[in-house]
Design a protein that fits this description.
Elements (H helix, E strand, L loop, with lengths): L1 H9 L1 H21 L3 H13 L2 H17 L3 H5 L15 H31 L24 H11 L1
Helix pairs in contact: 3-6, 4-6, 6-7
Length: 157
Amino acid sequence: MERVKDALRKSPGQIHIQYDGWKSAKEHKVWRRRGSVRKWHNFAVEVSRSDTWTDMLKKVQAVESQLSDDAQLKKHRPVGVVVDNATRWLSQFSMIERALVLRPFYNSFVQRASNEWEEVNLTRAGHIKKGSKLPFFLKEENRMTADDWHVLGTLYD
């Protein structure tokens, strides 16, 4: 028992990381059951927690807006996600509003993120490297569908 206590004292960061991973996965599962708003919430939380994903989202927006023929999209300036929280009044509305701003860029972002993740985490044989986990927002069941976007649009209006 002393060895275990000693190991825990020497590496509290590892326990914290494992706990956060468990909590995050469990929290994600709970939120996913709550429909389209929660599906976007999970996406926003995961992207906001990663500088890599946030930067990639902004780069995708910059490229897509430059290549677009749509005058509105050409004027678009890259933005990050907005995450709702329990203590800020109307934060869910702000999150939905930003989701709708990001909608034109969502599929391109997910495709690019998926390609980059696979490039880094798949072996030459196409297997996932040991210890690698596909981000929640890249899993097919967690991706926004046309129906999800319709629900967000209806809630916003």
